[in-house]
Amino acid sequence: MASARLSIFPLSGAILFPGLQLPLHIFEPRYRALVGDALARDRRIAMIQPQGPEERAPLFTVGCVGRIEDVEAAEDGRYNIVLHGESRFRLLRELEVKTPFRQVEGELIEDPKGEILSLGERAGFEQEARKFADLQGYSIDWDSVSRLDDLSLINGVSQIAPFDAAAKQALLETPDLASRCELLVQLMQFFGRSDPDEERVTLQ
After folding, report:
1. Which helix (H) or strand (E) is 98 found in, with range?
2. What are phi and psi of 83, to 5 degrees?
3. Which residues make Cβ contacts (< 8 Å) with residue 77, sequence separation at least 6?
C-alpha cells in the first residue's frame, strides 16, 4: 500500500468516508493556512479525530483523505469548503514540521471494490434504521433511502449518525461494508435503549 505525506485537520466528531462529502467552515488561522496550502498544491486535506481536547492531542489511527471540491473564501480570510472523501488512511507517524498545521505520514487503505450487502443484511439494517429514526423523532424519506446503493447508505448513515466520537471512529475503522453495517445496527440498538434526555451515546 502506498504511503503519503498528509496535512491533517484533527476535528473530534467529524468523520469523512470515501465517496461522501463533508462541509466545513474554516476560521482558525492555522487551518486557514492549511486550506490555502492545499489549494496551492493538490487540494487534499486529511481528516482525522484527536483522542482528546488538548492541543496536539494524540490522534486516532485511521482517518480519511478528502479533496476540496467547493471553496468559498471570505474577505476576512475564512473559508467555507466541501471535502469529497477519496481514501481512508492509516496513521504511521506524525512528522516534525514548521507549518502551523500538523502533518503525518499515512498509509492509504485500499477498500474492497463493489461491496454489497446480502438481502438479509440490507433488510435488517433498514428495519433497525426505521425503529431508530422513530425513537429519535427523525423525519426520513424512506423511498429515497431504499434507492440508495448499499455503500452510500451505510457510509452515509455512519457519517451523519448522532453517535459519540469513539463510536464514529469504530465505524471508520471497520474493514468492510458488512462489518460496518453490523456495527451500525448494534449502535442504533444501543442508542435506542439509552436515556432519551442524553444527547449523545457513549461506549465508555
Report:
1. none
2. -95, 140
3. 29, 32
Give the model confidence (pLDDT) of 60-112 as tens digits: 999 999 999 999 999 999 999 999 999 999 999 999 999 999 999 999 999 88
Which segment of 13-17, 39-43, 107-111, 195-199 scores lowest on mean pLDDT? 195-199
- Residue 33's CB is within 10 A of a number of other CB atoms, namely 16
- pTM (two decimals): 0.88
Give the number of other CB atoms < 10 A from CB of residue 158.
23
Cα separations (Å) of 93 from 46, 126, 171, 184? 14, 39, 22, 29
Angle at 115 between CA 112 and CA 116, to 5 degrees: 165
Choose among 67, 63, 85, 100: nearest CA to 156.
85
How many CA atoms lie less than 13 Å away from 7 in the CB half-sphere? 23
Q: What is the average pLDDT score of the chain?
A: 91
